[in-house]
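Quiz preparation item.
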């Protein structure tokens, strides 16, 4: 049972890396620093005061960059591979006492995979927002992503089962909202195209 909960925690933290790379890393560091999380062997440095400070600065810079016009999409090209690496590290660091081979197997399968999947989803969401709102809606998307990363990171440490339910519910809601918005935009584009078409002259 402990191993299952540890895996769920690793999945949650790595998934949060898909929303923001450094928010869950800061969460792991803070949890370890305050004694709420026992880090795996070789990752004790993440609980140091220096690590908390470094992850804190990196988190602020990352969040701020996503609110700058057009820089957010450039950040995605960097964040996509970084999220996979961070997800693997977060998952590995949060699972302790199950052997090195098991740790890295869990990190590779659940950590990098979960982070990569969520990151792909967030990139698609941002591109959809760019296409439908011209980038005006991207700050809203960024705010939701930060909130999701923070919530998932917190729940992963204190309530992994609740975190899994939150992830499924969040994904479903976002999918429905953007599907509806995309269909509405497509309908408006089709209507404008039809209005611009010249009337056909019937043969006399």
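Solution:
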């Amino acid at each position: 049972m402990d191993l299952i909960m540890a895996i769920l925690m690793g999945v949650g933290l790595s998934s949060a890396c898909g929303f923001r790379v450094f928010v869950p890393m800061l969460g792991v560091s803070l949890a370890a620093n305050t004694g709420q999380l026992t880090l795996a062997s070789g990752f004790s440095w993440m609980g140091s005061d220096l690590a908390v400070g470094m992850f804190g600065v990196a988190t602020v810079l990352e969040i701020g960059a996503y609110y700058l016009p057009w820089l957010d999409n450039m950040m995605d090209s960097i964040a996509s591979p970084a999220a996979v690496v961070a997800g693997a590290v977060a998952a590995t660091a949060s699972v302790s006492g199950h052997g090195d081979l098991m740790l890295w197997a869990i990190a590779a399968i659940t950590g990098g995979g979960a982070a990569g999947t969520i990151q792909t989803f967030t990139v698609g969401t941002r591109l959809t927002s760019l296409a439908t709102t011209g980038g005006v809606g991207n700050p809203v998307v960024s705010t939701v992503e930060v909130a999701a990363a923070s919530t998932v990171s917190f729940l992963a440490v204190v309530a992994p089962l609740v975190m899994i339910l939150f992830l499924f519910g969040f994904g479903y809601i976002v999918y429905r909202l953007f599907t509806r918005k995309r269909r509405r935009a497509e309908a408006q584009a089709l209507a404008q195209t039809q209005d611009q078409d010249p009337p056909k002259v019937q043969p006399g």
